[in-house]
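thread: overnight batch results

M.L. [08:02]
morning all. the overnight job finished for the chain we discussed friday. pasting input first so we're all looking at the same thing
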Amino acid sequence: MKHKNSTPNFPIDLVYLWVDGNDPKWQAKRNQYMNVGGNFATQGQVAARWIESDELRYSLRSVEMYAPWINRIFIVTDSQCPSWLNIDNPKVQVIDHSEILPSNALPVFSSSAIESCIYKIPGLSEHFILGNDDTLFCSPVTPDTFFKADGTPIVRLLKAKFKREHAVARGNYNLMIKRMQDLIEQKFGKRIYHAPHHNFDAYRKSDFEYCVNLMPQEWKSTSQHRFRHDEDMHRSFVSYYMIASGSAELHKVNRYNRINGVFDAIRCIINNSYAADSRCTSIACKDYEKMLSKYNPTMLCLNDGEGSTDEDRKRMVEFLKRKYPDKSSFEK
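M.L. [08:03]
and the structure it wrote out:
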C-alpha cells in the first residue's frame, strides 16, 4: 500500500526468528529445561510452535519476489542453520542467540526473550521489519508499506478491540498483551485497545532501546525466561509506545480485507481501516487459494498451533510450493 509523499530513502533490514524444532539435539536441549525452575506457561511449550515445515524457505522466496528492496536479512536462531540456506549470499546473515542474549540465559526457547534483545543484532539498521518464518508476502510491497519518508514506522494492529476480560481465559499470550496495554496506560496515560496483527511489523532500533531503558529490570527478566512467563514483556509494548507517543502511524487491519468498489474504499478511509494489508490464518485452512481470493492480503501468516495436524502441514507445504515455485538466491 502506497502513501502520498512517503518514499523512504534509508536502509530497511528484515529480521526473522527461526528454529528447527525437528532437530533431535535441539529437542533434547529443550526437554532438559522444560518445566524446570519456575512458573513457565504451558502455552509457550506447545510442540507445534517449533515444528519445522520449511516455511522460511518460502518466506525468503516471497521476499525476493515482492520485497527485493530489503537491505539485509538476519536469521536469529539457536546454533542452527537451514541446510538449504546459501550463506554466501551477502544479503543474509545467521545470528546465534549467544550474540544478542546474556550468556546466563542460554539456551532460550521463548520468542519473547529473543525479541527482547533483537535490537542488539550487530549491524542492524535503525529501521527494520520483524517477522517469523511463517510470515510471507503475497504481493509487491514497497518501503512506504512500513515506513514514511521521515522514518515514522507504520504500526499495524487488529481493528477489533482487544477485550481485557477475555485475556485470562485465552492463555499466556493474551495475558502478555493485556499487561502491555496496562503498562502503556500507566506510563503514558493512553490505552491502546488493539492487539497485534501477527505479521511483519515495522520498528526503529532506537525505540526498542528507549523502551528497554524505560523498564530495564522487566526486560532483563524477560530475556532470562527460557520459556514464556506470565510476567514477560512483549514487543507489542514498543509498538504501543510508538503509537502513544505519536511517533508512529497506526493502521488498523480489518478482518475482511478485500475492497469491492468505491463505497468500501471510502468506508475503509473513514474508519482508518486498511484493506488488503495482512491476514493470519490457521494452517488447518482447507482451501488456501479460496482464502487468498476472498481476503486478498498483502502479507500472510500461516499459524501452526496446538490443533494443527501433520496433514494440515502437508497441505500447507503443497500450497507454498504452488504459490512460490521458483528457487531464490537465498537457497543453495
